[in-house]
């Protein structure tokens, strides 16, 4: 969180953050094309696969560079455990969106958003991007499974929305092991999203209470 | 939020708020009649349609007047994005109910409700009005779809309640694209409603804690 | 809330609270017997019905006495709207359990529970009693309906638990109008219960934070 | 909570906490083996049963020793009601994980985790361990029941996740009395888990707000 911008690691991270975020969006797009367009002509499929693998290699290279610049060994893996998870499962990279926000912020001189707006923006963006990744992966695992109820990508998106908001109709639901494993991760995200919305609202109300108490004349 | 009542824009808004809210309720009613009474005699159907379109034109006129009075161009659209959304989807106009409250409040001299009561009232009113709009739209999209489980307006209301409270039984659920799109919006409302209730309760508890701490004698 | 114990109304309420709570539990019990034991011998059924009606008459009498003692007219109905609701739907009387707590508290000299324990106790007791009333009513409406999934009282209790915690499996769900109307009320209770648990937890955490901040030495 | 480490009871608890936690994990494991491997050779089944019973006897012995050392009679049962529940239902022992944390903490000199990290860690660990116990018990009750939808242990785990996050798809759900009773307990855990996540988030946001207010220069 508190990055030292004078160190080589800090300078690398400040420079690499935005290109890497673009790369992770491209990764998501190339995965989406492969999953959603199975009838694509073979040469284009190969291009997609190549792009996916090349981007993954890029993520590995960035991780290694940062590991080297940090001058540490296992300690780096422990303190950067989220980066390690994200390296193994690149579809989760959008959770780093908060760092991108910081990188953008440093370049401009505009005042930062209020904590509130930041929490809501971050929770919203993360929910949208992770939801899209999750819907893709679940669709990939489920659409050809016997007895599946998630048969189109639309079903997967619908199921994702009902899961992330913890509504959970159950009219469509994953039936394979891999699909259910991804689903459990998304339920966790839904719980966190609910916590973010509720906590944020609660904090805003308490702040407004406190401000009203101050504004009120003491004699009133 | 902080309207300048001396400016032409502020005066217009203060005067137009209540009639426009009445117009939006009438809009909802005329839409409801068209959706719920398909067997209505053709002339009455035409009257309903005419009322709906006339009210929409009224909303457009109000938006244009305010845009003109503001003396701005695209900036107005950005700062009034909620008004723009509400212009395109007039069924969402009831979310402006909080402004109506302010307009009413300014005319009376009664002390305002506590923040708590206001949040609960606003959340409750918005939930009821948006829930009714949503149930109407979903029923409109679903009732004739093949394989639909939402076949009567009662089913739509029942489904709306289970969605807004995030219970989500799933015994009835939308199956069409349009219906599911509306449903996703309503899940978002449900999440916000849950946040409002929870946050409000939490803020009230914390305030009560603080007050009890003050009332307690320091030696106790 | 702030009852004046010197006034005739205050003295009446202080004395009548506990017997009326016992009466409302008895009301619940006699309703339960009628609903759950349809094969009861006719004389016993009549006794149950008589007890139910007599208790209802008692509640009406209490309401009228309080209305008279208050010396007001419509104002009493407005400020005591919860009492009015509870008069029309006596199965909801258990929500008055918080007043019983106060009545008991006044007689003892023991220190009151912390706000936390009180909120949790109140939310828990209300959830149990309202849940039981709701399960009874829903079972009463549903068990003989065509296509019903709630066929035994056990099903009704199971459905109640999944509704009050907002889990909402939907394996059993009401299908009649009356059953769904009661269900909507119970979803609202579930939302409030969730708000109470979450808000209470949040308030406790914030209080503990504040205390730890105070205990920590300033140099630390 | 506030254990006196000088008393015989305090010393016993400090020493016995970690071995007892290991024993409760072993209890869970031996129960899991018996439930999940019904085709185990009879001698191994007997070993499992013997281990289970021996560990239960150990828990009873620990309870009796602590009851004796406390020098009290029924008062001990009342103030240690959670221990009493956990004695009767040893699968719930993992809820004592917070005490294990304290016992470990006392031995090290490292600074304690922040309240936040502790709440999240405790909620997460409890959810995982109780969820596993619950999934085992529900699977045990359900897998051979007529009309059951929970037929494999995987189904039970999937159902557990959807229950603890209050999503509740309902594609699989318990149908026996015992299974539903356990399910109700798990819904309660889910509600508490939701409260912990939300409350924790809310408390963190409020703390961060307060800190930002302090850091901001007063003229700003």
UniProtKB/TrEMBL annotation, chains A, B, C, D:
Q: Which residues form a coiled coil?
A: none
GO CC, any one term: membrane
Q: Which Pfam families match?
A: Ion_trans_2 (PF07885)
Keyword presence, Cell inner membrane: no
The UniProt keyword set, sorted, is: Ion channel, Ion transport, Membrane, Potassium, Potassium channel, Potassium transport, Transmembrane, Transmembrane helix, Transport
Membrane spanning segments where? 20-37, 49-69, 119-139, 181-206
Query: Where does the protein principally reside?
Result: membrane
State where the protein is found.
Membrane
Bilayer topology annotation: Multi-pass membrane protein
Domain Potassium channel, first and last residues per copy: 141-206
Q: Check the record and name the Gene3D superfamilies matching this protein.
A: 1.10.287.70, 1.20.5.110, Voltage-gated potassium channels. Chain C (1.20.120.350)
Q: Which GO terms describe its molecular function?
A: potassium channel activity
Specify the superkingdom.
Bacteria
Protein name from the UniProt record = Ion transporter
């Amino acid at each position: 969180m508190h990055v030292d911008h004078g160190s080589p690691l800090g300078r690398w991270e400040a420079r690499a953050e935005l290109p890497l975020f673009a790369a992770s969006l491209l990764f998501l797009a190339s995965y989406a094309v492969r999953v959603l367009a199975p009838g694509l002509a073979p040469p284009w499929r190969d291009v997609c696969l190549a792009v996916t693998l090349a981007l993954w290699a890029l993520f590995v290279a960035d991780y290694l560079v940062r590991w080297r610049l940090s001058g540490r060994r296992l300690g780096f893996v422990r303190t950067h455990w989220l980066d390690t998870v994200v390296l193994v499962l690149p579809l989760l990279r959008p959770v780093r969106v908060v760092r991108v926000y910081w990188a953008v912020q440093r370049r401009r001189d505009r005042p930062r958003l209020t904590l509130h707006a930041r929490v809501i923006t971050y929770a919203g963006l993360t929910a949208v991007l992770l939801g899209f990744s999750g819907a893709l992966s679940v669709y990939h695992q489920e659409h050809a499974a016997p007895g599946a109820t998630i048969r189109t990508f639309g079903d997967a998106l619908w199921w994702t929305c009902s899961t992330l908001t913890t509504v959970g109709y159950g009219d469509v639901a994953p039936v394979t092991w891999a699909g259910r494993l991804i689903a459990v991760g998304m339920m966790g995200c839904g719980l966190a999203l609910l916590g973010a919305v509720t906590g944020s609202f609660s904090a805003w109300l308490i702040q407004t209470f406190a401000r009203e108490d101050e504004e009120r004349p003491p004699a009133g």
